[in-house]
Design goal:
With 113 residues, the protein is mostly helical. Helix content is 63%, strand content 0%. It contains 6 helices and no strands.
C-alpha cells in the first residue's frame, strides 16, 4: 500500500512539472490571436492580448523556452498578412511586458538568452 501511494505521489509530481512546462507554438500563436487587431491597425492592445503575452513570457523560463517563443512569434508574424512591424515591436511596451527581444521577423532567435 505504501509503495502504491509513493508511486501515485511521483505521478502527481510529474504531472505538475509537465503542467508548468513552456507553452507550445500553437498555444503561443493562438494566444496572440487577440492581438491581431492591434498588430494590424494599431491603437491600444486589448486586455486579453496583454494577458496572453504576459502568460507567454512567464511560461518561458529557460533560454530554450524563450528562443522557442521567439521562433513561434516570428513564424506567426510571417504567416499573417498586414501586420505592422512597428506595432509588433511596440506590443510589449504597450502591454507593459518585458520581452528580452524585439518582436520582428528579423530577430535572431538564436541570440535570445
Amino acid at each position: 500500500m505504501a509503495g502504491t501511494l509513493a508511486k501515485l505521489a511521483c505521478v502527481l509530481v510529474m504531472c505538475m512539472v509537465v503542467a508548468e512546462a513552456a507553452m507550445t507554438c500553437n498555444q503561443i500563436q493562438g494566444g496572440m490571436a487577440p492581438c491581431l487587431g492591434y498588430l494590424t491597425k494599431g491603437g491600444t492592445p486589448s486586455a486579453g492580448c496583454c494577458t496572453n503575452l504576459r502568460n507567454m513570457v512567464n511560461s518561458a523560463r529557460t533560454t530554450a523556452d524563450r528562443q522557442n517563443a521567439c521562433k513561434c512569434l516570428k513564424a506567426a508574424a510571417a504567416k499573417f498578412q498586414g501586420i505592422n512591424p512597428t506595432n509588433a515591436a511596440r506590443l510589449p511596451s504597450n502591454c507593459k511586458v518585458n520581452i528580452p527581444y524585439k518582436i520582428s521577423i528579423s530577430t535572431n532567435c538564436a541570440s535570445v538568452k
